[in-house]
Amino acid sequence: MSFDSLAPHYRWMEFILAGDKLQRCRTAFLPEIQHAGNILLLGEGNGRFLPACRARFSKAHITCVDASAAMLAQARRRLVAGGSSVRNVSFVQADVLHWQPPPRAAFDLIVTNFFLDCFQAQQLEQLTTSIAAVASPDANWLLADFQMAASGLWRLRSQLILRLMYVFFGVVTQLPASRLTKPDPYLQARGFTLRGRIESDWELLHSDWWARTNV
C-alpha cells in the first residue's frame, strides 16, 4: 500500500469531494482531551490533523507514522507553514503492520483518522493489539472514519460511495481492504470504551473518542 502517487493531489481532492467535512471529523473530540504528553498519529497522511494537535498540546512529543515518504514530507511542510516547530515531532516512514514502537513508549493519545478503514479484519486485530501494547493505562484513542449508514436511502448512498472509494484506492494504492471492517470490537477487546461518537454527512462519517478503562 502506497499513497505516494496521491500525495501531491490529496488536499485538493479532499476539498473538492468533501470540503471541510473530513477535517471537522478529525478534530471533533480534540478539545475534550485534557492532557497528552506522548502522542501517536498513525496514517497521518499529508498532515491535516497535525497542526491542530500541535496547537492543542504544544509541549507533547508527537510521533507521526506513515508508509508514504511524500505524505510525511507534506505533513512536515504543513506544520512549518502554519508557524509551528518540528521540535518534539518525529516523522517515521514505516508500514504500521511491521513498525516496532519503542519499548515502554506509553502513548497517552493515539489518533487514527481515516486510516483503520484501509485494513482487513485480521490486520486490524494485529494493529490494535500492537498499538494497545504501547498505550498508557489511561490512554485516549481518537479516530475519524467512514461507516455504513443504518438504513434507507442513506445506506444506499453510503454503499455506493464506499464501493467507489475501495475500487479507486485499491487500484491506485493497492489498498489491502476491499470493504469496510468496523473497528469497534477490536478496540473494545483491547480495553477501550467508547466515550463519544458524532455522526455526520447522512451517517457516512463518524468521529469517535475511545478511552482505556483497563489493561
Q: Which percent range describes the beta-strand content? A: 15-25%
The radius of gyration is 16 Å
Percent of residues in helices comes to 25-40%
CATH superfamily: Vaccinia Virus protein VP39
Q: Mean pLDDT, rounded to whole units?
A: 91
Biggest β-sheet: strands ordered side by side in the sheet: 3-2-1-4-5-7-6
> How many independent structural domains?
1
Query: N- to C-terminal separation?
Result: 32 Å
Explain what you see:
The protein contains 7 helices and 7 strands, in the order ααβαβαββαβααββ. The protein has helices at residues 10-18, 21-27, 50-56, 69-81, 121-132, 152-173, 184-189, and strands at 38-42, 61-66, 89-93, 107-113, 135-146, 192-200, 205-212. It has a single domain (4-212), classed as Vaccinia Virus protein VP39 (Rossmann fold), CATH 3.40.50.150. The protein starts with 9 loop residues before the first helix and ends with a strand.
List the helices and strands and how they pair.
Blueprint: H1 10-18, H2 21-27, E1 38-42, H3 50-56, E2 61-66, H4 69-81, E3 89-93, E4 107-113, H5 121-132, E5 135-146, H6 152-173, H7 184-189, E6 192-200, E7 205-212
Give the key terms.
seven-stranded mixed sheet; Rossmann fold; 24% strand; 7 helices; 215 residues; alpha/beta
Can you describe this structure in just a few lines?
By secondary structure, the chain is an alpha/beta fold. The chain has helices spanning 10-18, 21-27, 50-56, 69-81, 121-132, 152-173, 184-189, and strands at residues 38-42, 61-66, 89-93, 107-113, 135-146, 192-200, 205-212.
